[in-house]
């Protein structure tokens, strides 16, 4: 287990140094359980995204983090040394934590009694290569009213399907697909009031102009509005390849946070050397998402008793 922190440069907001995790990481999934944030992500900094392990990062303020290993691909029965460990996401269901993840270009599933594991992987892929007309990567979770869970995934074509109440199976008759705008990958959905928001990444993660777009609708069946930019590169600030995000609402509050990755700003940044940062997400009076203007630093979520390094 490792503990580390970013230095404060202000009281809140974008008052943290760039790369608050102090590691190369990408593809974030941020969830709050109790009073703690848990971040699941791809371990980066290796050629061809070849990490073979997953870690969880735990924090109370998006600033001070504890890192724990939760699953090694050697523990995944159906992984035989192919492509690496990518893009995990978490669903809490019936007292258990379910991790959906990518290995060898397929989506797997693992279960644990709590958010820090230990996770035990299923014997077969949850979504195997060839099951649907897309590369099955980049899973994300959406839980609608009535506590109904959905899984989203895809590259080149986006898919969404309702999960069984225990989160362990796809309800195949609910699978739907679409290609929104210039969709590449990392489709996710959230809901605020009566409005549904879909957002996704365009271009390639190695492209400096990798970016996030969004659209909204009154239901999951649409009709969806014309896509708009949520986050894009700021070349003047040297902030490039802003993509593969997640959007999280603080439970019980109308406070929203977006986590995304970008080229690391340490001089080594590229499509395999990426950093995760956090930003507040605002909404206009008409419900539109307000475009996030990337900052050099990362957002610090204030707690009642913040710890000062």
Automatic annotation (TrEMBL):
InterPro entries for the chain: Glyco_hydro_43, Glyco_hydro_beta-prop_sf, Glycosyl_Hydrlase_43_Enz
Record key words, sorted: Carbohydrate metabolism, Glycosidase, Hydrolase, Polysaccharide degradation, Xylan degradation
Domain of life: Bacteria
Family (UniProt): Belongs to the glycosyl hydrolase 43 family.
Database matches in PANTHER family: ENDO-1,4-BETA-XYLANASE, PUTATIVE (AFU_ORTHOLOGUE AFUA_2G04480)-RELATED
Protein name (database record): Family 43 glycosylhydrolase
Organism: Bifidobacterium polysaccharolyticum
């Amino acid at each position: 287990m490792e503990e580390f922190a970013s230095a404060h440069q202000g009281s809140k907001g974008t008052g943290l140094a760039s790369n608050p995790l102090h590691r190369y990481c990408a593809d974030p999934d941020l969830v709050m359980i109790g009073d703690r944030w848990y971040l699941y992500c791809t371990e980066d900094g290796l050629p061809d995204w070849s990490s073979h392990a997953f870690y969880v990062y735990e924090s109370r303020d998006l600033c001070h983090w504890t890192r724990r290993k939760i699953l090694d691909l050697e523990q995944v029965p159906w992984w035989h040394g192919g492509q690496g460990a990518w893009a995990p996401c978490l669903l809490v269901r019936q007292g258990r934590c379910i991790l959906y993840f990518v290995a060898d270009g397929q989506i797997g599933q693992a279960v644990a009694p709590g958010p820090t594991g230990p996770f035990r992987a299923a014997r077969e892929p949850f979504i195997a290569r060839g099951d649907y007309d897309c590369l099955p990567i980049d899973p994300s979770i959406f839980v609608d009213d009535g506590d109904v869970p959905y899984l989203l995934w895809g590259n080149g074509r986006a898919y969404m399907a309702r999960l069984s109440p225990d989160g362990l199976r796809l309800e195949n008759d609910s699978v739907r697909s679409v290609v929104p705008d210039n969709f590449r990958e990392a489709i996710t959905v959230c809901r605020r009031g009566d409005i549904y928001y879909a957002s996704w990444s365009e271009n390639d993660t190695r492209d400096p102009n990798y970016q996030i777009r969004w659209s909204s609708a009154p239901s999951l069946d649409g009709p969806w509005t014309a896509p708009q930019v949520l986050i894009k590169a700021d070349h003047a600030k040297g902030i490039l390849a802003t993509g593969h995000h997640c959007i999280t609402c603080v439970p019980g509050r109308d406070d929203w946070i977006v986590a995304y990755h970008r080229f690391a700003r340490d001089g080594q940044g590229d499509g395999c050397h990426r950093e995760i940062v956090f930003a507040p997400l605002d909404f206009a009076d008409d419900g539109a998402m307000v475009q996030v203007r990337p900052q050099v630093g990362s957002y610090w979520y204030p707690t009642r008793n913040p710890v000062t390094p």
